[in-house]
Design brief:
Shape: elongated
Distance between the termini: 100 Å
Number of strands: 31
Largest sheet: 6 strands, antiparallel
Strand content: 25-35%
Helix content: 25-40%
Strand order of the largest sheet: 13-12-11-16-15-14
Structural class: alpha+beta
Oligomer: single chain
Length: 794
């Protein structure tokens, strides 16, 4: 009953029967019909109202029952009454009760000649009901009675909530009352199955209009019902296509895109949807349709039932489909294949696969539709649509809709597949260009991390640790503008250039100047000769640390500032001259020098580490300082802590490169220095001093080679160099370095002496006896150096 209408209106006979069969409510209309008062029958079994010998009503099989019953009047006589009973929805978890209604006789003026009824019948050509001012059913035509599923002459005098307990009945009664009070037309849409029909639910449009007399007063309400299922389904299809265009392809992930296709189509088009893809060849392209059996990998599925219990294959699992399966048939044919549970091909396939046969029987699967996923001339896989809860099979319109949605999804899957292939290629290229392991040096202990971007193409971030002469080490971090293979290739070229320039021991500012010239040339090449094309750009930070002087020289080209974490204090940002990004051209770079205590940690990174969507740059810098300042057992632990603190769980939107270096100092006891007079006669005493120093260092195994190398280098410096001349020996556990410096800027060259030449064999001899040798320019002149490998102690 509507909350605005009393249960007892004194007209229709109404009674409420609880689940245990007792009467809980009794109306005045029921008292008038049978003579029993509410106090006499409420709380007693309803079967006591049956007349002696009358047949009890059968057990209802659905939510409504109607029929004629012989009921006992209070005076003992039997009254034959047509009763309509329907189950009322429960207010809570308790069992539902039943509302039994016996309609009153025809109200006054309700005969065939009633002008209200004649007007309604004349004005409404379709299924129709007429209600009076009290919302009692005044008349109903045969078309409406057929939809309701009850005799027309039995419904007069009932309200909509008497006829049925569906939510639509309550909604209809509310709209009727509004039209009755306002006198304005109203349309109501609902989706339900008509009583008594075997078809599925239909979409109905109820047009509610007031009925007026000759004076314009509202005397009743007319309801006409129109089946607009075709328009409703067309709108549903259009909405599904629109949702597919919005919800499918939100990411460039193949599995996620396949899952979005399944999610969009359940339950709008099917009760269960699976997406199976062909595994690509080695080159990355899908193999296309082949002769059955066909191997497909489950990418995604979705069901109206939680957990998708109907699925035979799990995501990621490969399944083989024979020739009789809809999957193989649609892939080979290249078009949609619809199969019902009774088709011969489907039965042969299910006979071959007992697991699927049991699932089909268990869930009542009656119709499947297999649609190949095709994009840009390639067949990627197949989407299978299944119905078991919806009773109607797939129609031609369903096929067109599924093909349109899967066509959109196939393009998105192909885009994701191509992106994944390019991303994997780029990652492989970048990993091959980045150092797999960092070299072990006496100057620093280093650790690094590289994380590619998660939502965009792989960028051109790189880092490196380069051993230099004199126990020094160079550290570099750079970031190429852009993403993709081009950025990775440019990164490889720049990293190679940095290693080449570092090998000739250029100062950081000079190295960046040469690197800037290279980037300008690359920009001109990529821009077809236009110097302003700006196709290539990068930032870079280059640092050189000397463990003997414990001094670090740094320069940067538009790169983020490094951080310094001293061994006994909080981390702080080093203030370096910024310098222009690489590729601008013509602008200078400046160096800065920092004295470092042993155990200090230098942190170099790219800007992807600080780029957080939900915080500003200052907050990211503060979090980085805090992560570096916290105590840690190793640099690897510090790297992990930094990434965990600054990066979101799903990864960064940009590439991230992080390089940490803990400095080591070389004790003065491991360094020996001599000033050499420019007199060849003093070479022999110098050799003697070197031998004595090696004895003090307990490096006797290197004495012969070191004596010979020192002799050749000092002799060359006296003969060809310019004073002052200085000799320096440096050693650690594995290396002995001999350095001779002078103020002549001319560097020596290795050459092969001819048979009768008296000189020219010194540097060749040095090259043969040492692990490596070279020269570097200094502000005063040059330094010639040679490294000797020390034998490991047994």
């Amino acid at each position: 009953m509507s909350p605005d209408e009393p249960f007892d209106d004194g007209v229709a006979a109404r009674a409420v029967i609880a689940a245990d069969g007792t009467l809980t409510e009794w109306s005045e209309g029921a008292r008038r019909l049978l003579g029993h008062t509410a106090d006499e029958v409420v709380g007693r079994p309803a079967v006591e109202l049956l007349a002696d010998g009358a047949d009890p009503p059968p057990t209802p099989v659905d939510a409504r029952w109607s029929g004629t019953l012989g009921l006992r009047h209070r005076d003992g006589r039997t009254v034959s009454v047509w009763v309509l009973a329907h189950r009322r929805p429960p207010d809570g978890p308790e069992a539902t009760d039943w509302l039994a209604v016996a309609p009153p006789g025809m109200p006054d003026g309700g005969g065939p000649d009633d002008p209200l009824l004649r007007a309604a019948l004349a004005q409404s050509p379709c299924a129709m009901m007429i209600f009076d001012e009290r919302l009692r059913l005044h008349g109903v035509n045969d078309a409406m009675a057929e939809l309701v599923g009850l005799p027309a002459d039995r419904l007069r005098g009932l309200r909509p909530t008497d006829i049925g307990s569906r939510p639509q009945s309550r909604e209809l009664e509310e709209h009727l009352r509004r039209v009755l009070h306002t006198g304005r037309r109203h349309d109501m849409q609902t989706y339900m199955k008509a009583t008594g029909e075997d078809r599925g639910p239909h979409a109905w449009l109820a047009r509610i209009a007031p009925l007026t007399d000759d004076e314009g007063r509202v005397r009743g309400v007319c309801v006409t019902a129109h089946d607009f299922s075709d328009q409703y389904r067309s709108r549903e299809r259009l909405q599904l296509v629109n949702e597919a265009s919005v919800r499918i392809g939100t990411t460039l992930d193949v599995t996620r895109t396949a899952q979005e296709l399944a999610d969009v189509c359940v339950p709008a088009l099917a009760d269960f949807v699976s997406v199976d893809l062909l595994d690509p060849r080695d080159g990355g392209e899908p193999p296309g349709p082949a002769a059955p059996p066909v191997s497909l990998r489950r990418a995604a599925h979705r069901s109206v039932d939680p957990g998708s219990p109907e699925a035979v294959a799990k995501p990621g699992q490969v399944d083989v489909y024979p020739e009789d399966s809809p999957q193989a048939a649609s892939l080979v044919a290249g078009h949609t294949v619809v199969a019902s549970g009774s088709s011969a091909d489907l039965e042969r396939w299910l006979a071959w696969d007992p697991v699927r046969f049991r699932r089909v029987r268990e869930y009542g699967i009656h119709s499947t539709m297999s649609v190949p996923l095709q994009a840009r001339g390639a067949t990627l896989g197949v989407a299978v649509f299944t119905r078991f809860r919806r009773p109607e099979p797939f129609t031609d319109d369903d096929v067109l809709l599924a093909e349109e949605v899967t066509a959109r999804a196939a393009v998105c899957i192909d885009n994701a597949r191509r992106y994944s292939r390019e991303r994997e290629t780029t990652l492989t290229l970048q990993r091959s260009l980045l150092p797999r392991t960092l070299p072990r040096t006496a100057a620093v202990e280093a650790a690094s991390r590289y994380l590619p971007a998660t939502r965009s193409g792989v960028g051109g971030d790189w880092f490196d640790v380069i051993p230099l002469s004199g126990m020094r080490v160079a550290m570099v971090v750079g970031d190429v503008v852009g993403h993709g293979i081009q950025a990775s290739a440019t990164m490889g070229r720049l990293r190679t250039a940095v290693r080449t320039l570092a090998d000739i021991d250029l100062a950081p500012d000079e190295l960046l100047t040469h690197l800037d010239d290279l980037v300008v040339r690359l920009s001109q090449e990529s821009g077809g000769g236009d110097a302003d094309a700006g196709e290539v750009g990068a930032t870079c930070l280059y640092a050189v640390y000397d463990p003997v002087s414990r001094r670090c020289t740094l320069a940067r080209a538009g790169h983020p500032q490094p951080l310094l974490a001293p061994p006994d204090g909080p981390a702080r940002q080093l203030d370096l001259p910024s310098g222009p990004p690489l590729g601008v051209g013509g602008l200078p770079f400046e160096c800065a020098e920092v004295d470092l205590r042993e155990g200090s940690v230098l942190a170099f990174h790219t800007d992807g580490l600080l780029a957080g969507r939900e915080r500003d740059l200052d907050a990211s810098r503060r979090m980085l300082r805090e992560a570096l300042s916290a105590p840690a057992g190793s640099l690897d632990e510090t790297c992990d802590r930094v990434l965990h603190a600054l990066l979101p769980p799903g990864g960064s939107a940009d590439d991230v490169a992080l390089l940490l270096a803990r400095t080591r100092g070389l004790p003065s006891s491991q360094v020996a220095t001599w000033d050499i007079p420019a007199d060849p006669a003093l070479v022999a005493p110098i050799r003697k001093q070197v031998v004595d120093q090696l004895e003090r260092w307990e490096l006797l195994e290197a004495t012969f080679t070191a004596e010979l190398v020192v002799s050749e280098l000092v002799t060359n410096a006296i003969r060809y160099g310019a004073p002052p001349i200085r000799l320096r020996l440096i050693h650690d556990a594995s290396t002995l370095i001999c350095e001779v410096s002078d103020t002549n800027h001319t560097a020596p060259h290795l050459r092969r002496a001819k048979t009768w030449d008296e000189g020219g064999r010194g540097l060749l001899l040095v090259a043969q006896l040492t692990q490596r040798w070279g020269s570097r320019h200094t502000t005063e002149g040059k330094t010639i150096w040679a490294e000797l490998a020390l034998l490991d102690e047994v």
